[in-house]
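Q: I'm writing up a methods section and want to include an example of the input and output format. Could you take the sequence below and give the corresponding predicted structure tokens, formatted cleanly so I can copy it straight into the document?
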Amino acid sequence: MFLKLAISKTKQQGSALVVAVFIIVVMLAIVLALSRILLSSSESVVYEVQGTRALFAAQSGMELALTELFPRSGASNCSSWTFNFAAPGLTGCAAQVQCTAQAIASEQLNQLYLLQSTASCNANEFITSRSIELEVRQ
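A: Here is the clean output for your methods example:
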């Protein structure tokens, strides 16, 4: 009987090691999956913030272009403009605004302009851009 017990103990000695390795591999897989989810989540937050900055830069470029298009002196100047921003919220952003005079067949309107503003923001390796359009009449 003692011999039978000794033989069964020697057969069971390696099973705990197999279970321990299996648990370590499963835990490693879970940690890697969670870290990948966390990394992709932080990248999406960065792109969202950069996209908002680019949208604000496009809107700011549009507003600056409107002051160039309709100056207080009177004569409108439809051309293309490039604005580089140095304000703390828009550092690294630039806006390009294109103005196109549209033909109109109305006696009430003098001129119709189409403004297209495209802004891009660069922060480290993340580059985002946004575009907006605006029609204005004189």
